[in-house]
Amino acid sequence: MYRAAQLQVPVETVRHAESLGYHSVWTAEAYGSDALSPLAYLAALTDRIKLGTAVVQMAARPPATLAMQAMTIDALAGGNRLIVGIGVSGPQIVEGWYGQPWGKPHQRLRDYVTILRKVLERKEPVAHDGPEIQLPYTGPGALGQGKALKSIMHPVAPIPIWLAAGGPKNTALAGEICDGFLPMGVGREGVPQSLRSKADFEVFSGATVTITDDVKSVLDAMRPLTAMYVGGMGSESHNYHRDAMARRGFPEAADRIGELWRAGRKADAEAAVPDEYLEQTALVGPVSRIRRRWEAGIAPPGVTGIIVSADQPEALNLMADLAGTREQVG
User: Model-level pTM?
Assistant: First the structure.
């Protein structure tokens, strides 16, 4: 878990998912364990399941460094297995943890992904003169001896680049320069039509799956983390989790949770998280209830895949049955 005090890689769960025909396993990072190292570890312990980041933080490493790590891990995995999902994070982490200016994240994303793709494609030495990132660097402190370089290592297979985004500008950017989209707070109207019309463009959302007879207890256990993200992962002016809740149809609840959290009333903030919001991305209950909700459609229109979060082997089994992946595995 990327937000745990101790690193735990659920190897047997991942192997079980691979045996069931799951498409991919995904890692994340905040300000503790990183997202890439566990994938290198899993590459040695699995055979075919794809290895994705949802997400690596843009401020954590220069684009050339991310390209080097991506090529290395994909080579270790045998090729055609790595998916690089990139996200901006927020100003608290960008400035407070990585010591970088918030700047203009939309333009920085464009520069970043453009450089990353140039490195991976190896068509020519990498040079880029963008408003946020320049290669070679010629700014303050430069000796003026920078040289455009081409990666020594050749990728063993193409490495797709996905973008995590919520707002309209970065969502459009994902469709323009990336191979996939990890939506943050997509509304029930679904993925924009401009993305749905793109050939071979993937859009993955997420869902927590828990088989239980006590739906209320499971939802109650989800409230503290939800309230912390919506209320505390950002400032009053910049909180992308609050914005995501608003986009998903709960603007008043998002504002109220933020107010309560900032006032130090954490228990009240947790209580203010609506059940309906939690169940938009959670399949909870007996198997019959989960099956009914799956058949009714949990994913917004335009989503091509769901990243399942499940601690129970039987929940992974159920989702493989519902998605029909078991029949695809020899």
Answer: 0.94
What's the rounded Cα separation, in Å, for the pair 61 and 56? Answer: 9
DSSP H stretches of helix in 97-151: 105-121
Identify the CA nearest to 236 among candidates 211, 255, 215: 255
Q: Specify the DSSP class assigned to residue 88.
A: -
Q: Which DSSP string corresponds to 145-189?
A: ----B--SSPPSS---EEEEE-SHHHHHHHHHH-SEEEESS--TT
Measured from the Cβ of residue 28, the count of other Cβ atoms closer than 10 Å reads: 20
Among 155, 152, 149, 103, residue whose Cα is nearest residue 130: 103
Tell me the domains of the chain and their CATH numbers. 1-184 (3.20.20.30), 207-308+319-330 (no CATH)
pLDDT of 53: 98
Mean pLDDT on 33-62: 98
**Which of these, 150, 110, 154, lies nearest to 132 by C-alpha position?**
110
